[in-house]
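Page 37, continued from 36.
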């Protein structure tokens, strides 16, 4: 296995050597190497091949990639499977060059894993075009952080304000609205236009929602007023008028009708002196408030079916 990490050229192998330092007298040389074996590529890691092999420096396999050697697959693999706590000050790579060498360097950096995922949404031709127009993203084996930060800001901050946060980098750079494809400047200019359009769209949508909310409130005004005055007679806990009103408002707006069954009240502590409170139509809910919380049950309820039946009876 030592031959796999040897500096001597081996056809088909990609060898990544890094030098790290934790201070004077504390440096190490690590290596990652690929090995093609029967329809798959094994990716090996040697934590420090300058020392005699010990338990903490013995080479081990990081994982394998199906198929033949493919730079895109290796970049994606390293982006998700880099060694834990991997750190380096210097890096040299054999067996690959150009944009894929640069992307390998990015893949070994924790800061830009999401940006790299988006770069990989570009096909090979588009990746070359983008790199030619906006790259390089790595210069002399050092990350061009200004450019990578610009991509990160566009994708994960500014797009959120446009209603187009679901776009991948590939879709964004090829968008028909752009004056110049693969241009970050053109993307930023178009984002400003999209932001203005989204602001107008949201105002119109809010206006429509508010109109519908008021129409429904007016339609069920009598039932709502009756519920706020009498809900305690149909509940088995000390329910709060304001929370009942909020529930009815949201329920009627969402469903376009009144609740017609028992609705159960849940109250869960989420922080010091803070609780999350909500009505559900089911007595049991799963993973509410906290993921993987499991099933929560409540016995506190308001019987809206009986409440609104009583309202109809009193109208007769």
């Amino acid at each position: 296995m030592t031959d796999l990490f040897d500096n001597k050229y081996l056809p088909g192998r990609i060898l990544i050597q890094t030098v790290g330092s934790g201070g004077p007298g504390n440096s190490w040389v690590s290596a990652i190497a690929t090995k093609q074996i029967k329809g798959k590529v094994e990716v090996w890691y040697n934590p420090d091949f300058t020392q005699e092999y010990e338990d903490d420096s013995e080479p081990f396999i990081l994982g394998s990639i199906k198929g033949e050697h493919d730079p895109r697959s290796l970049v994606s693999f390293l982006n998700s499977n880099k060694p834990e706590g991997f750190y380096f000050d210097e890096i040299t790579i054999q067996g690959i060059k150009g944009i894929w060498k640069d992307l390998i360097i990015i893949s070994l950096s924790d800061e830009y894993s999401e940006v790299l995922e988006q770069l990989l949404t570009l096909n090979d031709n588009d990746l070359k075009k983008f790199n030619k127009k906006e790259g390089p993203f790595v210069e002399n084996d050092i990350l061009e952080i200004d450019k990578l930060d610009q991509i990160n800001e566009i994708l994960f901050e500014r797009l959120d304000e446009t209603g187009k946060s679901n776009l991948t980098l590939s879709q964004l750079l090829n968008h028909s609205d752009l004056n110049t494809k693969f241009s970050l400047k053109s993307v930023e200019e178009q984002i400003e236009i999209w932001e203005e359009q989204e602001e107008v769209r949201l105002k119109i949508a809010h206006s429509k929602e508010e109109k519908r909310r008021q129409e429904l409130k007016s339609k069920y005004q009598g039932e709502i007023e009756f519920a706020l005055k009498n809900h305690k007679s149909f509940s088995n806990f000390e329910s709060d008028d304001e929370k009942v009103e909020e529930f009815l408002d949201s329920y009627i707006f969402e469903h376009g009708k009144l609740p017609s069954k028992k609705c159960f009240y849940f109250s869960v502590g989420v922080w010091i002196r803070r609780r999350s409170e909500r009505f559900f139509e089911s007595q049991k809910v799963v993973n509410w408030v906290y993921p993987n919380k499991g099933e929560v049950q409540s016995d506190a309820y308001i019987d809206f079916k009986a409440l609104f039946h009583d309202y109809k009876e009193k109208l007769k």
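The chain has three domains: 1-108, 123-132+139-219, 220-315. Flag for discussion at group meeting. The CA atoms of residues 104 and 224 lie 62 Å apart.
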